[in-house]
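call fold(seq) -> tokens
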Amino acid sequence: MTIAVIGIGLIGGSLVVDLRKRGFADRIIGVDSNMHHQNIALLCGLVDENDTLENAIDKSDLIILTTPVNTNCSMLPGILERIAGTSKVVTDMGSTKASIAEVSKNHPGRGRYVAVHPMAGTEYSGPLAAVGKLFDYKNAIICDRELSDPDALGLIERMLDVLNMHKVYMNPSDHDVHVAYISHISHITSFSLALCVLDKEQEEQNILALAGGGFESTVRLAKSNGETWAPIFLENSQFILEVMDTYIDKMNSFRKMITEKDINGLKSLMEEANKIRKILN
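ret:
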């Protein structure tokens, strides 16, 4: 099988590491607008060649979109046009699904597309961030599977099995609500905390010297690439704003208890938050 990976970064690079190693892909073609990324991917052996989008589509059996979500949306209709009448399959790895579902739902070639979101990643970006086993035992969300042709869906499900991923099926709106709560708000919180500390650091040079493990784990996501996350926040703005309002309300509850020196109220809030252990364990 020949695979075209459109966007050779953390996700695309990590995908092909395991798909090649585990025998799913025979040849991998990279497509990236960043010449530096192209060269690194070729030198590191992530891809066998780099090519234009059109040539890569024509040469490949499977096209995987791993660019920012807004770019995935803009490219998908044209790709579906180009593969019309063939057995080729296209999938995306985007973190939002409602917008790409909307642009593809009435397309005559919709059946050749399978919408996927692997719940895996790190705070790093680019082809040098690619690692093996990134997806092992993580969840992979497949949206609108009934709109995909059975053979297209079967191919992507086999790919996810090769990656040792657990398959979960959702509709796009439910998916976007859930990721707003469990992923997107975590990134916004981390970015915000980093900005707060950087503001204070301008006045007090020792503040980062005191940072421990708790701070590092909380602010880790602030190292994530804005080119990736800004489009996600805008694409999923409806649900993210809803989550942010809830988050601000909870912050205000803590602020109120601290202002009033209400130790029992603080303990009560924390004990309520501790219930998350039952979900995460």
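The chain has two domains: 2-170, 175-280.
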